[in-house]
Design brief:
Radius of gyration: 18 Å
Helix content: 10-25%
CATH class: Mainly Beta
Number of helices: 1
Order of helices and strands: HEEEEEEEEE
Structural class: mainly beta
CATH superfamily: Carboxypeptidase-like, regulatory domain
Amino acid sequence: MTAGLLFWVLHLIAQAEAGPKFDYDKIKDFTKSPTEHIIIELDHPIEVRSVRGLVRDQTGFLRQSVIFEIREKSSDAVRRATTDARGRFRIKGVQPGEYDFKATLDGFQSVVGVIILSRKADPKNAIQIQLKVGV
C-alpha cells in the first residue's frame, strides 16, 4: 500500500470515528428486539395532534406486531402500542408535549425520533414509519 493510499484509509477511519455517536440513553427504557443492531434516527420531529399512525416496510407492506413506544422527555414512563393486521397503532390519552419514540420489529432496523404533540398540528397528520429489513 502506498503512503498516499494509507493516508486516505486512515483519514476515512478517523472521520468515521469522529462522527456523531448515537445516544443510547435516549432509548434505554424502550423495547429491544432480539436481532436489533441498526437504529435509524429521524432528523426532524413529527408534529401531530394524536399518537396514531401506520408502519410499513420498505416495499410498502403494512407491518403487523410492530412495537411503537413513546416516552415524555421529562419522564422514564414508557407507553406502548402494537400495530394491528393493517399496520395501524394508537396510544390514547397522551397530553400535548414532546416525546421520544421508537418503532421496533424483530428482523428490521428500529426507528427512533421525536414526536411533538400539539393542538396546532394539522388534524390530517399521522405518524408514518418505514422499517427497513435489518442487515
